[in-house]
Amino acid sequence: MAGIIPIKLLKLIYPIKEPDFTRDRPLQVLALGLGRTGTESLALALDELGYGEVYHGWKTAALPGCYVQWARLGNAKYGKHSKNPALLNRAEFDRVIGHCGAVTDLPTAAFGPEMLRAYPDAKVILNRRRDVDAWYESQKKTIAKLFTDWRSIVPGLFETELFWTWQCVRFVVIRMAGDDFEWNGKEMYAEHYVQLEAECRKQGREWLDWTVQDGWEPLCKFLDKPVPTHPFPAGNKVGDFEARLASLHAKQFQRALRNIAIAVLLVLVAVAAAWHRVAGR
C-alpha cells in the first residue's frame, strides 16, 4: 500500500509509535552482506567483540515501529512512483540505528551504497556465501516467502504491527528483487556485491570479504581485535526460521484473528439490520 497511499495517511489508519534515535555512539562496522549469509552468527560475533548493540533483522521485531521508517526508506529507494534519494541520508538512518555500533543483515543491507556514503569511517565487511545456489535455496525457503500469500497478507490488514512488518518486507525484500525473487534472485545477489565493491573502490575504502566458514581469525585481524578461543557462534538455521517467525508474531496474529472476527460480526449485524429494515417496509 505504501507507495500508492502516502505513509502519513497509512499511519492514521495504522497508528504506531516510531523510534527516533539520534546517534549516541560511533557506527564502527557495516556488515552489508545479504540475509542468509551468516548474518546472525556475525552479529553475535560482533557483539562478543565489543561493538555494543548490533543491528540485525530479527531485532527489528523488538521495536516494531521501526518498520515504518524502513518502509519509508525502502519506498524512497525502490518505490516505482515515489523515489526520493534525498531521504537516504545519515540522519534518517540514525532514526532506527543511532543506538547501534554495528549492523548486519536486512534491512540495512538493502541500503548498502547509501550506508557506505553515510558512514565513511565504518569498517566494511562483505559477508557472503560462496555457493550462490545454496544461498538462493536458503533465501527462497525463508525471507523470500514472507508476506507472499493471503494467509499472511490478510491478517496484516487487521493488525497494526503486522501491517508495518508487511510494508517493510514489501519494500526492503520484495522490491529489492524486482518483485520476483525466483526469477531475479541470483542476479540480485551478484549485483548487490558488485555495487558495494564499486562504491568501496570509488571511496578508496578497504573491505573484508568474509564467509562464516572463515571464522574468527580474518574477522578479528581486520577489526584489530583479539581472537577468541571458543568456537564461532552459530545462529538462524533454515529449519528454525519458520518456528522462530511464528513465535515472534504469535500475539500479532492472535490480535489479527480477533479483529477479523469482530469485523465479520459487525458486517453480519449491519446486513441483518438492513434486511430487517427492508423486510419491515
From TrEMBL:
Transmembrane regions: 256-275
UniProt entry keywords in alphabetical sequence: Membrane, Transmembrane, Transmembrane helix
Domain of life: Eukaryota
Keyword Transmembrane: yes
A Pfam match: Sulfotransfer_4
Signal peptide extent: none
Protein name: P-loop containing nucleoside triphosphate hydrolase protein
Organism: Friedmanniomyces endolithicus
